[in-house]
Amino acid sequence: MRVLGIETSCDDTGVAVYDGEAGLLAHRLASQVAVHAPYGGVVPELAARDHIRSLLPLIDSTLELSTSSASEIGGIAYTAGPGLSGALLVGAAVGRSLAWAWGVPALGVHHMEAHVLAPMLEPEPPEFPFLALLVSGGHTLLVDAAGVGSYRVLGATVDDAVGEAFDKTAKLLGLGYPGGPALARAAELGDPKRFRFPRPMTDRPGLEFSFSGLKTFARQTSVAHRLDSATVNDIAYAFQDAAVDTLVIKCGRAVQQTGCDRLVVAGGVGANRYLRERLAELASERGVALYFPRAEFCTDNGAMVAYAGWSRLRQGATDPLGFDVRPRWSLTELTPP
Predict the structure, then answer these.
(1) pTM
(2) What is d(CA 65, CA 17) in angstroms, rounded to the nearest whole number?
């Protein structure tokens, strides 16, 4: 089966074509960074409008790049949630309409399942079962993945996601947009010894996360010091070190509790180089195989949606003619295809 995947959950428009025999044939992405940069964050209404402008031309160019005609597409997968409702509706409406026009099945895909399965697009994909650390602007989850659609959430954030904390701290420090990568660049120039931030919820058992207090600590530190360039870099280092250390500690606990020897890391924060280095150290110490999608597939993209849709559509899963989106949708509500 050859599947067209559509991703519009937030501020990136992603389209891809995945073939069950040939693999990923093509993928394209339209970024909205320039649209939202003046506001320092994603404006939902502007995101939806930009998806409307970008999606159909992007589908045409992706089909052309994959040398696929509409008659060769056997199914369409679109992100149905979680995400911004207006943005989700754009992809769902276009995806379901094209599927009806082309006479092929359509399927709404769970955005976080697509992230879980993103490493399957790599030359050496992980085998089930595995642990998955999902870290993005909207989610921080530790998941026990037994198979497609079979997930058990071991720990989640009780307040802010780690990606949001990165972005908000970067905005506080005046580092620009998008904030996460900007803060990571500043942290590379910081003094490791000047500040030490707390590691939230690591002084108690459990696998839950919390990052709102870390943001508050960064704000208090910035107020107490003159924010010259050196101080900004030092705060950025301390924040990133604390956030990453927290994630690594919780991953270590999850490995110990479950005995699982495979760890998948996905989501936008998964592209953070310092996080990758620290998790590689953990994996080496614990004898765990570590899997990342390539950096461009850590952030939102159509390729992971196409693959996630293919993994279900090929086994007969399909949605009815009507469509809906779910801005809030727990990963544990999914079932195997």
Answers:
(1) 0.95
(2) 9
